[in-house]
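STRUCTURE REQUEST FORM
Protein name: Ferrous iron transport protein B
Source organism: Methanocaldococcus bathoardescens
Requested output: structure tokens
Priority: standard
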Amino acid sequence: MGNKYEIALIGNPNVGKSTIFNALTGENVYIGNWPGVTVEKKEGEFEYNGERFKVVDLPGVYSLTANSIDEIVARDYIINEKPDLVVNIVDATALERNLYLTLQLMEMGANLLLALNKMDLANNLEIEIDVDKLEKILGVRVVPLSAVKKMGIDELKKVISEAVKDKKFAEIKYPHFEPYIKKITSILQKDENLKKYNLRYLAIKLLENDKYVEDIIKNSKVWDELKPVLDSIMKELSKKYGEAELGIVEERYKVIDKIVKEVVKKKSGKLTTTQMLDDVLTDEKIGALLLIPFIWMLFKFTFDVSKPFSAMIEHIFAFLAEVVKSSISNKFIASLLADGIISGVGAVLVFFPILAFLFFALSFLEDSGYMARIPFIADRVMNKFGLPGKAVIPLVMGFGCNVPAIMAARTIEDEKDRIITILINPLISCSARLPIYALFAEALFSKYQGIVIISMYALGLILALITAALFRNFVFKTSPSYLIVELPPYHIPHLNIVLKNTWERVYDFLRKAGTIIVFGVTLVWLLSIYGPSGYLGVEALENPQIIANSWVAVIGKTLAPIFSPMGWDWKACSALVFGVIAKEVVVGSLAMLYGVGEENLSNLIANAFTPVSAFAFMAFSLLYLPCIATLAIIKQEIGWRWALFAVTYEIVLAYVVALIISVIGNLIF
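Status: completed
Returned output:
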């Protein structure tokens, strides 16, 4: 085996970095977290001409200013780990915006290669890029490709294998700042310890008032000599630009503008499809109104298409439970398998098709480009509730799962903004609550399933916004920041990408069904056949009089008086307790506590609840304690104090909302 090299992939969000990473590495992927932070670390490997290449996928960033955790991770890796090659993935349809990061990488002195992705889209938009001229101006290798269509990947591997050996450290000049940069570097080079860094990079970052670099220089031998020189330069630049760092930003964009004018030719006068659609879909009023039918169609598609598949799974698990009971003579083992594991997991997996088609529809909208517009449209409303613009993205992600959504809040620079976003995120209805809604909607609102389920999502979002406004006004008294989001061009979704994204999300659900949910329903089963007096027998699962003496009944009956205004029996109360393990466990717990399989649970729920008590139960399930995984990630991101605060306010909020629904509902109906 030949040499092993380490390369890093970096680029703006939505440039196709993940697609290129997957195309290079295939299945050889390792996922973890970067040391000390919750930012996902993805690594992979590939071989080319007998040599091995370790590929590190850095977080998607617009710049390396290092204001957010993602930017800090990317900057620290490049500076400290010094990879053999940095592959900067650039969107060919948005060269001007993407080159800002490229210039910063050149400033750092990285051995750089430009992967010019989405060339097929650029051609469709009649954008011509002179690749040879771009390569000559920048002094770095440029590889044109289309990752989605798998065009140029082999050429990229070939150029990577050459670039790791034939290293080129290109330098970009900033005409108005060169005298200052030279003056600072001439002093920095007097300290041998600083030569492990790129001195030009240190000089530029000092002009930007970068605290990280400033701390490095303050501990050096040349700080006393440099300090008065730097103060003089900063004073001079402040007169010219107001703030020195703004001058650097302006200078970068002047250089980028010159490059783009030389290498890009675009036929003008023709409106693109994206421009025409955005005139309507991102309009402040029309876009917001169109969002409602889009979401309605999303849920309509999900439930109508998934229905026959759910019915099939329901019958399969009912059949398996009967087979196990009839073939195993030991009642304890037979009941554990049939009433515990099979019935419990079956009661949850019956919703697998619903989730699969929901994720398919979401992935379809994401790959089409429309999903990126939803945060953009919602941002105008969000700021009115005291939320930072960037909070829109974690909140939208929360509809899938609160755990990655809370982690996504790390891109919010301001700590107070980030805490507010994390605290309200569990109020957004994740996919785990959907089985609960689907069960009760089918049982008691069969004619209005879609509307009832959408109302839960709407309730969660409305309460999240109101809560954010209250936190902003009474706890954190600062102004929110604004959203900067990329709007990718619309295009026909690629089926392979849609299916891959769907599978990754569905796999998370299956993994939970195979681990934590099995644990949850098994625990409920054990607590149902045992009580304060000892072992009650598996007959307890089919005999209401026996199960009334179990530990489950003790828990439920203790809570029942508290929830008596809502009209819930002790079994419903017990199921909510076990829902803390994972929200999906609520359905499996109800199936076990009522002693029925999934095929009969809907009918039994219709008898045990009224429409008002069912709606209150759904609302409480939406708002009360987050699952264990969500609670753990809140603690990890902002600490135990805020995690306990989240638990407290969510329980109080859930109870108050369920009580209001019950009182008003019973008065009206």
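Reviewer notes: The first strand starts at residue 4 and ends at 11. The chain is about 60% helix and 10% strand.
Form closed.
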